[in-house]
Design goal:
The complex is a heterodimer of chains A (about 270) and B (about 280). Chain A is mainly α. Chain A has two domains: about 1-130 and about 240-270, no CATH class; about 155-235, no CATH class. Chain A has helices spanning about 15-20, 20-40, 40-60, 65-70, 75-85, 105-130, 130-145, 155-185, 195-225, 245-265; strands at about 90-95, 100. A two-stranded antiparallel sheet of chain A has the order 1-2. In chain A, helix 3 (about 40-60) runs parallel beside helix 6. Chain A starts with 15 loop residues before the first helix and ends with a helix. With about 280 residues, chain B is α/β, with parallel strands linked by helices. Chain B has a single domain, classed as P-loop containing nucleotide triphosphate hydrolases (Rossmann fold, 3-Layer(aba) Sandwich). Chain B is built from eleven helices and ten strands. The chains are: A mainly alpha (about 270), B alpha/beta (about 280). Chains A and B meet through helix 8 and helix 9 of A and helix 2, strand 6 and helix 3 of B.
């Protein structure tokens, strides 16, 4: 169960996508998300799918692995689809008792599902090709203009780094504790919802304790190395935009133009 | 008691990080035996012990505990877990109850025992591990490191398993705490006729306690024999990243320098008995 979570995983590589500056990638992903919601018809989604497929092919990430990232939110996607399918008012095409499907419902459901899938796939590609450190570095640099209005950009980035860093550690820890308690006969995956909730106690308490312990240790370790926030801090690796980034922006601008064009030519739906 | 037949296990099967942890392992452990398990980090020790109580399922091959094949249908895996008590590395991180006594009772209560019976067993187990009675009403989080470790081991022992598997029970303890826990484990082994599997990085501990030593190397059984058989092959042990007890090293050096000392010396006592007549001469 825990193995399915691909969030925050990173595949090192040296592809075009890997070499892009994290700031470029973050800006591209923002543009991408905007486009996912901007698209008005299926032709637009085809264009977006082509773009995404191209990115995946270039990145060298196995498409199977990327798609596996959808598994944890499959239930959510299915529910969204079903709700929109049955609950959208409009021109009826099918009815059984109180259940009815409308033309608008079919379209809306398809759109919502497509949007969710595209969002997950796109952001997964970002995290799979960008190391968490690079990602938060990029985030910090992008947010630093807002420091003037007292936005703690460095602190936000540091918190994100730490949170991302500890996802695999805590997953590991959960796995270990689950095994240790199973070895003492705890039945975690059987019984009704109440006994299951009760069975979570022996796992959650040790997990919380270990999370706090780790936080404490980390704080001490950071203080030992004289960490005192972002003020006047210089960095070992400065982020620099290169030729690949310019290419990346050009591609993105082209896609944006294409999507807007498709929207204008094919109209809504 | 424990039999493995051609057992293999692979982590992340099919993925980019595929790793074969166990490769065609077959072995037999008799009832009442004390087996030391040694191997380099990543040699498959932890995987093997998790297969023994059904936490992991073998990819191929059979795990047979006390005559029951774990892969057979209708086998209640929880019964196996009560029979094969597994104490994982750093077991103190599994403590969660309000009091030490309640925590030790967790296993026995899961077995369906009455509160009274569970408490009796818990007290007995605490006594076996050398946990003072007055600590039983304290919160497990107020105990010292060594005491926590003991409470956790007692939590396994209270289920009265036939087989006790300990994964590095002394990791991170001070020498006094280490010796005491090892002594208690030997005591339990003798008094309760427990079959014990002790995973350890310390060659000295394993040499002192085990009837037989199982050496794993990259998922395969490298050696399985008495301590003197195993430590006689000190060159091979070093080759796979392991060590031999210091006294074995001394004996090896002396032999290399021309002294007439047999191979497979692993306790100070043995070495003493051989060296003394030589020195007197």
């Amino acid at each position: 169960m825990l193995k399915d979570i691909t969030l925050g995983q990173y595949f090192p590589g040296d592809s075009f996508i890997h070499r892009l500056d994290p700031r470029t990638k973050i800006l591209i992903i923002i543009a991408y998300v905007v486009m996912v919601f901007l698209i008005q018809n299926f032709v637009g989604y085809i264009a977006l799918a082509l773009f995404l497929a191209l990115c995946v092919a270039v990145s060298g990430i196995s498409p199977k692995y990327l798609i596996r990232g959808l598994k944890p939110i499959l239930v959510f996607i299915v529910f969204t689809g079903i709700f929109n399918l049955f609950l959208t008012p409009g021109e009826e095409i099918w009815r059984w008792g109180f259940l009815k499907i409308t033309v608008e419902g079919v379209r809306f459901a398809a759109f919502m599902v497509l949007r969710l899938v595209f969002l997950i796939l796109g952001t997964s590609l970002l995290t799979l090709t960008t190391s968490p450190i690079a990602l938060t570095d990029g985030m910090e640099r992008l947010l630093s203009p807002f420091k003037k209005v007292h936005l703690p950009a460095h602190e936000i980035a540091m918190m994100m780094t730490i949170a991302l860093r500890f996802i695999p550690t805590l997953l590991d820890e959960t796995d270990k504790i689950m095994k240790a308690q199973s070895a003492r006969g705890a039945s975690i995956d059987s019984g009704n919802i109440f006994s299951r909730a009760k069975a979570m106690v022996p796992i959650l308490i040790p997990l919380f304790i270990s999370a706090f312990r780790r936080a404490d240790e980390l704080a001490t370790a950071m203080e030992c190395r004289c960490y005192r926030g972002g003020e006047g801090r210089t960095r070992l690796y400065e982020l620099k935009f290169g030729a690949v980034d310019v290419l990346g922006w050009i591609y993105m601008a082209a896609l944006l133009a294409a999507i807007i064009g498709i929207n204008m030519i094919f109209g809504k739906f | 008691m424990i039999r493995l037949e051609n057992v293999s296990y692979t982590y992340m099967s099919g993925g980019p990080f595929e790793k074969k942890a166990l490769d065609d392992v077959s072995l037999n452990i008799n009832e009442g035996e004390f087996v030391g398990v040694i191997g380099h980090t990543g040699s498959g020790k932890s995987t093997m012990i998790q297969l023994l109580n059904g936490l992991l399922k073998p990819e191929s091959g059979k795990v047979i505990i006390d005559g029951t094949d774990l892969s057979e249908k209708g086998v209640n895996i929880r019964d196996i877990r009560f029979k094969v008590g597994l104490c994982m590395q750093y077991p103190e991180y599994q403590l969660f109850e309000e009091t030490v006594l309640k925590d030790i009772c967790f296993g026995p209560l899961n077995m369906g025992l009455s509160q009274k019976e569970a408490e009796e067993r818990a007290k007995f187990a605490a006594n076996m591990t050398g946990l003072p009675e007055e600590l039983l009403d304290k919160s497990p989080f107020d105990l010292s490191g060594g005491q926590k470790r003991r409470a956790a081991i007692a939590g396994i022992l209270a289920m009265e398993p036939k087989v006790l598997i300990l994964d590095e029970p002394t990791a991170g303890l001070d020498p006094a705490g280490r010796d005491e826990i090892l002594f208690k484990i030997r005591d339990m082994h003798k008094r309760m006729k427990l079959t014990v599997l002790l995973v350890s990085h310390s060659m000295e501990d394993v040499a002192k306690l085990a009837d037989r030593i199982l050496v794993l190397n990259s998922g395969r059984v490298e050696m399985f024999g008495t301590p003197s058989e195993v430590f006689a092959q000190s060159a091979r042990l070093r080759e796979i990243g392991l060590n031999v007890p210091q006294i074995t090293m001394v004996a090896d050096r002396l032999r290399a320098a021309g002294a007439d000392i047999p191979e497979g010396i692993y306790t100070v006592g043995d070495c003493y008995r051989i060296l003394l007549p030589m020195l007197k001469r």
